[in-house]
Design goal:
The complex is a heterodimer of chains A (510) and B (489).
Chain A lengths: L12 H12 L4 H7 L3 E3 L26 H10 L5 E6 L2 H6 L21 E2 L4 H6 L2 H14 L5 E6 L1 H6 L3 H12 L3 E4 L9 H16 L3 E2 L8 E7 L6 H10 L3 E7 L4 H5 L6 E4 L2 H15 L3 E3 L5 H12 L4 H29 L3 E6 L3 H4 L1 H6 L3 E7 L4 H7 L8 E4 L3 H11 L3 E4 L1 H9 L4 E3 L11 H17 L40
Parallel strand pairs in A: 2-3, 2-4, 4-5, 7-8, 7-9, 9-10, 11-12, 11-14, 12-13, 14-15
Antiparallel strand pairs in A: 1-13
Helix pairs in contact in A: 1-18, 3-9, 6-8, 9-12, 13-14, 14-20
Chain B lengths: L9 E2 L5 H10 L3 H8 L5 E2 L6 H10 L4 E6 L2 H15 L6 E2 L4 H6 L2 H15 L3 E6 L1 H6 L3 H10 L11 E2 L8 H17 L12 E4 L6 H14 L3 E4 L23 H6 L5 E5 L5 H10 L3 E5 L4 H16 L5 H17 L7 E5 L2 H14 L2 E7 L4 H12 L8 E4 L3 H10 L4 E4 L4 H6 L4 E3 L17 H23 L10
Parallel strand pairs in B: 3-4, 3-5, 5-6, 7-8, 7-9, 9-10, 11-12, 11-14, 12-13, 14-15
Helix pairs in contact in B: 2-17, 3-9, 6-8, 9-12, 13-15, 13-19, 14-19, 15-16
The chains are: A alpha/beta (510), B alpha/beta (489).
Chain lengths: 510, 489
């Protein structure tokens, strides 16, 4: 194992711990005590978590976290294309999460797919008198206006749970009346500590209301699988599904990217579940394993090294026919991937990246950066659990900093010290770091690009990472030549986190 | 079997292509439109957000101010990311992360801990607190909570901590803007009114405007007059800050001392009667000097009214530079009117944008054929109707109050127009109708730098006109038959 322990020059357990201590020094004592266990130096050899996780966010620190509703609407339910997803409550939650995750959908909008914003738009009177009646009416209206919708999800926002509405009863009654699956999902934003509980609640509703209620029309085959935790961000599923099919497998359902309700409902008959985003869907894999005896396997579709490993791991579970096909696929794509690496690696070799994302990306993408010659010098999650950090440890170089639900301040301080060449995180972080002149890619949404999954995705990923790091535009942040003439440095506003190193910042002096 | 709905277990049947085609055609029919307009409960694709978003916007308009969401943390993430996407700028804000136990015990502990942490970490000069659903439903008493916070020294006693109740189940983002703004001004000006003092300044509130170019434009116009001014809730630098290798968490905003002294101003103009009624009402009763509320100065007439009012309030001649600017704008309009004349538009947006779009279009000889307001009052409807009645190009135009963008789609398919004006969310309906969408409102998630181009003032009129006319010319160039493809247009 010790051969696999990777070190980064200048990063030691001591240096990382000193950085953490210094970062927290500004916090009030109580907040410091709460935050300290969530920051740590990776112990790669241990292969286990070096931080605590899945705890309440400390108030007032500027967390990047979302809520249970976000996990239900944005992540699990929202991507199912042939359903109407009702944001039940006031107008905002559904409006903010409308089209902002980039889970692409096929179909005809308003006819067979519904990437729209459906809401009960609660008013004061709905808070006072309850919204159950309104819900019943709107379910009938939705069915009437969208007759080809295969079902309706009712995703509760905060007030619904607080005023004591019974959406379950309404859903059951209306389901019968309309002969349509209507799934009540009590994913109010105040539940739990992050998006994560929304994933869990949504998985539970799939378990309780969906799975087992449909059967595939065609006969079963030993190669029937489902692709779980693939949300088709920027078209990811349109890269991974064909890849698995090229390996000889029948992808009967995708959960839930470009997903179809009926196929999800019939997934209990597949032979294997292949899970990509473990965090958001491990629950249903475990349910299907216990209840239907379906094994599951966790794969990584980022970068040729991990894809190769994953496909071979997958082939092990099947016969020689699949093994041969998988080897043929690897043999076909390896040279193409090598060509991509040869093009980009010379410009990216030795560059450092820091990550803060959700789900699986803070660990799963590390290999793809490494394929391009880059090192990950810090990584963390918004809403991970201990098992995610266990899985992260072997992927991260030793002694690098791991952060759970970091505040914006912590993230900036770490970046200030580690001086990465690239940061991969979310929209809330993007412009902070870009102002500092640090190249950045949104790693939730692929920054309006994608796909990043599969072989097809690696080409796009490599191009985007090169574009971000090597764009000539970053140099423009500095005045060329000897700088402005006859000016002095002046800052009208208090500076917070001036990140560029001394001597490398903008030179505005006469 | 875990089928809690008790529905029959079925084999999967694919929908037939014929049936899909039938529905695809049906949703474009008059019959569907009627059904669609008969909706009582379901809202589809609304063109408005909730109050706290506007409250956060207002808070960003003040120097050193940290917006603080009292409520669930997901709310703060939603407001921040929405502002990030529109401006392509940072939008720092914190929340106090209320969870289940807040529902039982109330949110005071979260608020106090949050204030203490936010103050220690982000060192703001002011913290602007506003609420999302949870504390509104459980009835948290912000007044008491914040008083207690100061007593407990969670924040320094002299730190301004304005707060606003901004329930998401009432009104839209413009109402949150209003509530937060009036609270900020009340807090900052408390005890600052000095008998006999006059700053000699004009205070200007731009309304719930998400275009940073507009703020710079107001400033430029007032500077051209030589009138000393304070833009209140000034977002120009907050959401349009330089990329120079450093990050300033508080990049802009009205200086707190200027805002405090604004109560002694010579005059105050509140733009946007629909976004600032509370604020203006309070200013009228409390501020020194004269007070005026004006519509967003979009188009020539409304800009004229704005300029004349400024001149009148300060007894100044309109400077030659602005007179020339007006002349150049009119020159641009007469040069290009033929590309917009008679064109039919569907428009939607916040009330103050809407009155602007409608009067601009009528001035150009275009027809605001469908006017959709996602949430608006009788007063607004009357004002829009009066605008239509005042122009022959307003004939046969219809106002649809409290309708959404799925209604808009039905209108576009059954009673076609040439283009839509609104925010990015209209792109789906516009694409189905195969017509262009002109993005002038909020949010704009799918085009770059639009918030830097003013839509108010003479320059704003030229900007809007140029974008619209050139697009129509583009369409002609892209779609005309070869023999009609020519050099000149």
């Amino acid at each position: 194992m010790s051969d696999n322990i990777r070190k980064i020059d200048g990063i030691t357990k001591e240096s990382t711990e000193a950085l953490i201590a210094e970062t927290l020094s500004v916090y009030p004592e109580k907040a410091r005590k709460k935050r300290a266990p969530h920051l740590g130096a990776n112990d790669q050899a241990s292969g286990s978590a070096c931080v605590k996780s899945n705890k309440k966010t400390v108030p007032g620190v500027m967390s990047a976290r979302g809520c249970a509703y976000a996990g239900a609407k944005g992540v699990v339910w929202g991507p199912i294309r042939d359903m109407v997803h009702v944001s039940h409550g006031p107008v905002g939650c559904g409006w903010y999460s409308w089209g902002t995750r980039r889970n692409m959908m096929s179909g005809i909008t308003g006819v067979t797919s519904f990437p729209m914003q459906f809401t009960s738009d609660f008013q004061e009177k709905d808070i006072v008198y309850g919204g159950d009646k309104k819900l019943k009416t709107l379910l009938a209206e939705a069915h009437d206006l969208f007759p080809l919708a295969k079902g309706i999800s009712v995703l509760s926002e905060c007030p619904v749970g607080l005023i004591g509405d019974d959406i379950t009863q309404v859903a059951k009654t209306s389901s019968k009346e309309l002969d349509l699956p209507i799934i009540p999902c009590n994913c109010e934003g105040f539940r739990g500590v992050s998006q994560s509980l929304g994933h869990h609640i949504s998985n539970d509703t799939i378990r309780d209301y969906i799975i087992g209620t449909r059967e595939f029309a065609e006969p079963e085959s030993p190669y029937d699988i489902a692709l779980i935790g693939e949300y088709n961000i920027g078209g990811d599923a349109w890269s991974t599904k064909p890849l698995l099919e090229e390996c000889g497998l029948n992808v009967k359902a995708v959960w839930t990217g470009d997903g179809e309700l009926d196929k999800i409902a019939a997934t209990h008959t597949v032979k294997l579940n292949v899970i990509h985003c473990y965090r958001s869907m491990n629950y249903m894999c475990k349910v299907m394993e216990e209840k239907y005896g379906i094994p599951w396997i966790e794969l990584n579709f980022f970068g040729p090294t991990k894809i190769r490993e994953s496909l071979r791991k997958l082939a092990e579970l099947f016969d020689d026919n699949i093994k041969a096909k998988v080897e043929a696929v690897i043999a076909k794509y390896d040279p193409i991937m090598q060509g991509i690496i040869e093009e980009y690696k010379p410009r990216l070799d030795g560059k450092k990246v820091m990550l803060l994302v959700g789900g699986l990306r803070p660990r799963h993408t590390i290999g793809a950066y490494e394929d391009l010659g880059m090192d990950c010098v810090g990584s963390g999650y918004e809403f991970a659990h201990n098992d995610d950090y266990d899985r992260t440890s072997p992927e991260m170089p030793d002694a690098t900093v791991v952060y759970d639900d970091p505040s914006e301040y912590e993230f900036e301080k770490f970046a200030d010290a580690l001086k990465p060449d690239l940061i991969g995180s979310g929209i809330k972080e993007k412009y902070v770091f870009q102002k500092m002149g640090i190249p950045f890619r949104q790693m939730h949404s692929w920054d309006y690009s994608g796909p990043y999954h599969g072989y097809k995705g690696f080409e796009v990923f490599a191009r985007d990472i090169d574009m971000a790091i090597n764009s000539p535009t970053w140099k423009l942040a500095r005045v060329s030549g000897n700088g402005w003439l006859h000016s002095t440095v002046s800052s009208p506003h208090p500076t917070f986190g001036h990140l560029l190193p001394q001597g490398e910042g903008i030179m505005i002096s006469g | 079997m875990s089928n809690l709905l008790g529905l029959e277990v079925k084999k999967i049947v694919e929908t037939s292509p014929e049936e899909i085609e039938k529905v695809q055609n049906w949703i474009n029919t008059d019959e569907y439109r009627e059904k669609n307009f008969a909706r009582q409960a379901l809202v589809i694709n609304p063109a408005h957000a909730c109050q706290p978003l506007g409250a956060q916007l207002a808070a960003h308009g003040f120097e050193g101010t940290l917006p603080f969401v009292h409520g669930s943390q997901g709310c703060a993430s939603y407001y921040r990311s929405t502002l990030n996407r529109h401006f392509r700028e940072p939008a720092p804000a914190v929340s106090d992360s209320m969870t289940e136990d807040g529902a039982v015990f109330g949110g005071q502990n979260n608020l106090h801990e949050g204030l203490e942490n936010a103050n220690a970490i982000y060192k703001p000069k002011m913290i602007a607190v506003f609420t999302s659903c949870m504390p509104e439903v459980i009835g948290d008493d912000l007044t008491a909570f914040i008083k207690n916070a100061k007593q407990k020294n969670c924040v320094p006693k002299d730190m301004p901590v304005p707060y606003a109740n901004t329930p998401s189940f009432n009104g839209t983002h413009i109402h949150g803007y209003d509530s937060m703004l009036v609270s900020i001004l009340q807090t900052l000006t408390e005890g600052k009114q000095i008998e006999g003092r006059c700053t000699g300044k004009l205070n200007l509130i731009a309304g719930c405007d998400f275009n940073t170019g507009d703020y710079r434009e107001y400033k430029r116009i007032l500077d051209a007059f030589g009138i000393p001014n304070t833009i209140l809730a000034d977002l120009a630098d907050s959401f349009d800050s330089p990329c120079d290798g450093s990050y300033h968490i508080y990049a802009g905003g009205t200086k707190l001392e200027d805002a405090a002294d604004s109560i002694n101003g010579k005059a105050t103009i509140a733009i946007g009667p629909y976004a600032t009624p509370k604020t203006f009402g309070w200013i009228k009763d409390n501020y020194s000097g004269k007070h005026v509320t004006l519509p967003m100065p979009m188009g020539i007439e409304k800009t004229d009214a704005f300029i004349m009012k400024v001149a009148e309030l300060f007894g100044k001649e309109v400077p030659a530079s602005l007179k020339n600017e007006r002349g150049r704008a009119v020159d641009a309009i007469t040069d290009s009117h033929q590309y917009i004349h008679g064109k039919k538009f569907a428009v939607y947006g916040d009330p103050d944008y809407l009155t602007g779009y409608v009067s601009f279009l009528l001035e150009m000889g275009a027809r605001p054929h469908h006017i959709i307001c996602s949430r608006g009052s009788k007063k607004l409807e009357k004002e829009l109707q009066a605008l239509l009645d005042g122009s022959m190009y307003g004939k046969e135009c219809t106002i649809y109050m409290n309708k959404d963008l799925w209604h808009l789609r039905s209108l576009l398919m059954t009673d076609p127009v040439d283009a839509v004006i609104g925010d990015s969310h209209g792109k789906f309906a516009a694409r189905d109708a195969k017509i262009p969408l002109f993005r002038f409102g909020f949010p704009i998630f799918d085009r770059v730098n639009k918030h830097r181009y003013p839509i108010i003032g003479y320059q704003g009129a030229v900007n809007m006109l140029t974008e619209i006319c050139n697009k129509f010319i583009d369409i002609k160039d892209e779609t005309c038959e070869d023999q009609y493809f020519e050099l000149m247009r």
